[in-house]
Amino acid sequence: MVVLAAEPTYVLVDTAVVGHLGRTELGALALGGAVLTVAAWLGTVFAYGTTARAARRFGAGQRAAAVAEGVQGSWLALAAGLVIVLVLQVGGPPLTRLMAGGEAGVAEAAADWLRVASLGVPGLLLATVGNGWMRGVQDTRRPLFFVLGACGLSALLCPLLVYPFGLGLVGSAVANAVAQTVSGVLFARALFSEKVSLRPDPAVLWQQVVLGRDLVVRGAAMQGAFLGATTVAAGFGAAALGGHQIALQLWMFTALAQDAVAIAAQSLVGAELGGGRVAGAKAVARRVAGVGLVTGFAFAAVIGAGAPFLPQLFSPDPLVHAQAWTAWPWFAAMQPAAGVVFALDGVLLGAGDAVFLRNLTIAAALGAYLPGALVARWLDLGLGGVWAALTLFILVRLVAMLWRVRSGRWAVVGASR
């Protein structure tokens, strides 16, 4: 939980620091951050695939083979990170202009932020894959220190670079890039210390690519929903975009904190199925669903109680506060359902049930979120309409995942799937 909460906690600090620069800078961070979140999501996809495969190997008593999954995942992560840097250096400005609509100042500032922040993407992806294989072999202590160290460095650098050093919004991007690179180096060193072959293995790489393909498509549909939400919010003006940034980053914080349950489920379910223990895997599924529900209600209570003052921590602008409050009821109400969805995500990811997750996420994004967002824009429902559509996206996934887990079709045993 500490590892997962560290990154969104830093993003909240970043939002608070930048928010006091002004409405334009906060909106620019929302746009640039939304684009970079897609890169972070790609790293999470690699991590999930690596965790599932490594956990099955580990459960079958094959630790060296489990670590080898991390080596191949790291090669994929490094290659993807370098490609993303090149794409964002060239395509960042037109992308932010497209997302910002008529807000030219926001688009220009977002492009400047993105050019610098994107340099940390290779390190970010290496770190997420490193987390993946280490979770697979149930080593959660070292990632704790690696992630806390990098995020602590970033949280220290951000306010210093933004204000005393006078870099403004770009100072936030520099802090991001430095911390992510340091994190990637730390996880790479952990891989070197395992004394396994670091050569690319085409057979294992291909198996990871096949699994990653389904997870990438699933994640693309999910990220498309959130990127679309930011784009629709931008159409309602800079204040709405700032309010959306506050609510979204708090939502990401709660999501990743609750994902601690999912990550535990992923590692434990993979190990149980790798060892041929179906009953144990199903018992994990039942327990984590219950924990997800309880944590969801707890977050809903905290979010509801914090409505009067939480938005004010991130911006002094009353118009931004007002916009954030329109999203707040939906933000709080979705938490219990989201808690169960995140938990069951971990169960099915640990089982390697990627095809089902891919198809479900596409269906929920295209059949629930997209129509809802279009209606919100067409009827001028504002930020509340955007967040109502995101809530529907969560509910559709909840119903389908409960059915899938109950069916038992996901519980396939063996050292690989």
TrEMBL record:
Keyword Ligase: no
Keywords assigned by UniProt, alphabetized: Membrane, Transmembrane, Transmembrane helix
Major location (coarse): membrane
Listed transmembrane segments: 26-49, 70-93, 113-133, 145-163, 288-307, 327-348, 360-379, 385-403
Subcellular location: Membrane
InterPro entries according to UniProt: DinF-like, MATE_fam
Membrane topology: Multi-pass membrane protein
Nuclease listed as a keyword: no
Pfam families given in the database record: MatE
Recorded GO CC terms: plasma membrane
Any one GO molecular function term: xenobiotic transmembrane transporter activity
Family statement drawn from the similarity comment of this UniProt entry: Belongs to the multi antimicrobial extrusion (MATE) (TC 2.A.66.1) family.
NCBIfam families per the UniProt record, alphabetical: matE (TIGR00797)
Protein name (record): MATE family efflux transporter
Species, as recorded: Virgisporangium aliadipatigenens
